[in-house]
Amino acid sequence: MAALEAPLRWAEPCDILRMGLVSYAGFEPTNFRAWMSPYHKQYPSDMLAFERATAQDYLADPDYLCIVIEDNPNPDEVSFTGAVIPSDDVAAVRHGKRVQDQGRVVVGLDRQHLNGAWPSVCTTPDDCPTRDQYSDHQDTAYELLINSGDEHLKDCGVILEYLVVHPAYQRRGHGQALLKWGMEIARIDQQSAGVTAADSGMMLYGAMGWVKIMTYGMAADEVSPEGFSGCVMKYYTQPEQTSGQAGGQDWQVESETNVACNQDAKEAKNDIGVQNLVDQLEEINDVALSLALTLEQTSLSEEDLAL
């Protein structure tokens, strides 16, 4: 198991209230949140209850690893998010006390499944209020994510299900630290890792060596005028892990994206402090370019390569 060093640590039951607040604040700007819970501003207590019940369920599940990252509290953190955090919320009150005591607070979290299993069903925790949600959107989004994972992530030994950082503490390397820890687990186990990433996270994953496999999304409607989109991404720890993909529907996407991710990672290296990323991506890039040439020679039609 990869070692945890401050400011990273294992999540504990006492963190659940704060984890719910961080999750709500961190995902509030995304189209996915607007799709799943379009009424969260009217019913913020329901949104917080959902995030906390979810955190509690995952902490209690032995198949999941949950870690958090801490930082010094920002007294004005609520101004960095459009999430409606009631001033009397327990976590908000505790945050105020942390500011006075000059203590540290949870500002980000990460949870992942290690047994290579993609959830066959996604549900709202039992007895959780749902006034913030739109049930039709919940059903269609869960079905889309489950089908995407079933098709593309079954071979992954590590599934990154959740990574979020509070907006007031972003651009400090917290997301990179959380992601690198999960990647280290995959490297130790010599397993590939997978994620269904929101558009907002694609740049981070791409710069850290993850490969885009396919995109997904839902069209806009009267409830959510922007719809939402995301992508399935993989992180390969061994070059041979890509060999079985050749000739499949996804390989053209992987080959082209490996090249793009390689260039993005080189440009972002100084910013994100990734030590071994370039060498690793160059190895994958060699494989990708070779297979891309093979595909070109076989003259596969656009219909054969369509996702």
Q: Could you please describe the fold and organization of this structure?
A:
The protein has one domain (8-297): Gcn5-related N-acetyltransferase (GNAT) (Aminopeptidase), CATH 3.40.630.30. α1 packs across α3 and α8 (251-272) runs antiparallel to α9. β4, α6 (174-189) and β5 form a beta-alpha-beta unit. The protein is of the alpha+beta class and 307 residues long. Strands 1-2-3-4-5-7-6 form a 7-stranded mixed sheet, sandwiched between helices. The longest helix has 22 residues, at 251-272. The protein contains 10 helices and 7 strands. Residues 244-281 and 291-307 have low confidence and may be disordered. It has helices at 16-27, 31-36, 44-60, 90-101, 135-152, 174-189, 202-207, 251-272, 277-298, 302-305; strands spanning 8-10, 64-71, 105-113, 158-165, 193-198, 211-218, 228-235.
